[in-house]
């Protein structure tokens, strides 16, 4: 299939028909299940949107885009931290393929400061350990790591076989901590199969970092207006751009979970006065738990998109309520926007009216719609790989979510206020006043209320469905990951990787927005893709013969 498209025509696609066409290919039972995960959007009063089925098991046999719980824990949440030694307990492939592929960057404060990110540490489990147990080898690995690096902290990440054979990584962590006082050693039961996707791994990571790291160090950073950013992982240097901006504004970024981060920053994060949440899916648990235990309020921000960045900086300034800060933030926005606007207008003149689709993880399919809108492009279809209903419909539905066996599998911590260190950061009256200005504490609006009616929302998109979308909508750009990239491009549609950024970035903040506009301009206006001829156009069927006994 190669998609032929006329530029700038009306969309003229009935989303319901597309949904029916998708479902027609499935056996009845599969079609019934998928029907609940494919929803035509409607937005009614009170941000009410249709219910979508999400965070449930992928049907066996379907080519999903999802990853595993280990990926969500080790790769996503802890991966970007530079000075926690991270040991993958398992076969070498799990450690190797989660090593640097996400393009999270880091910048140690000086040449003498530790940075373990360039290392892939694994116990390299073999048959012998599968049969006789791997705890001995794990202890040896920890010993070696301590001798080599003298780290402050070590995380042990469990892969599937660890759970299957019953190695107790937590007992090993306790034993080794006794042997090496001063090194914080903690294990994660993040076996790949622990959940229906990497989302389970986020939750497991949040829990352990909260119980074993946050609150270990009562050392507030120097500076005014101290806050943490949760759910920003410094892909392609995004966190560097955000740090540049918050520095200019005179804010004190205490810690980022976990882009460009250090152990001590996590350990003392409870001393900051505000948490702002970028990626709601991966870290909302931490925001909630820190609020309950330490009294730190949180609200959602978005640094993807120039207007969204400006809005987020304004919200943070309003929260601290200092006139000087508010003025500085306005000045930074003015200066930065002056550089953004001419590029945006120029790119918009070539991109307006073109169509985008976004199928990414658990938050970017929402955030990046901002950037497309800024250059006049429409998002006609979007979905998450592993978002939950609250990521789609907004946090207001959390109470209605049916807890199934897979969710119950993951521990939900009971968190209470810390006797000494709980401290409300704002009085009730101040919170009310800020709410009136539009700050929604402890809330996330979700993706669907911010999307146009009739856009097609698809959870856990698969290969067959992506093909139907391409044929019917003929989008000008399709955003997804490396597993989708070449299939889509062979059909003549440019694919922008929104996980790794295709070796580019940053895309956050004002400079990031400029990078993104330019790149999308190059992609959607390139003649290259109309010249692509997929191999199957010439010979639609593969022919082959077995070499048998020759
Ligand atoms: Fe959050 Fe992320 Fe994402 Fe995510 Fe991911 Fe990612 Fe993602 Mo890939 S934490 S949910 S588990 S924003 S690695 S940096 S790009 S799928 S949309």
What does the model show?
The protein has a six-stranded mixed beta sheet with strand order 1-12-11-10-13-14, with helices on both faces. The chain has a four-stranded parallel beta sheet with strand order 3-2-4-5, sandwiched between helices. It is of the alpha/beta class and 550 residues long. The protein has helices at 15-24, 28-35, 69-78, 92-97, 127-132, 135-149, 160-165, 169-179, 198-212, 238-249, 263-267, 280-294, 306-320, 323-351, 364-374, 389-393, 405-408, 428-436, 463-473, 482-490, 509-524, 535-538; strands at 38-40, 84-89, 121-122, 153-158, 184-188, 226-232, 252-258, 275-277, 298-300, 355-359, 378-383, 456-458, 477-480, 495-497. It starts with 14 loop residues before the first helix and ends in a 12-residue tail after the last helix. Helices cover 42% and strands 11% of the residues. The radius of gyration is 24 Å and the shape is globular. The protein contains 22 helices and 14 strands. The model has no long low-confidence stretch (mean pLDDT 95). FE-MO-S cluster is lined by residues 72, 76, 102, 198, 231, 233, 235, 279, 281-282, 360-364, 499.
Please tag this protein with its features:
550 residues; alpha/beta; 6-stranded mixed beta sheet; 4-stranded parallel beta sheet; 14 strands; globular; binds FE-MO-S cluster
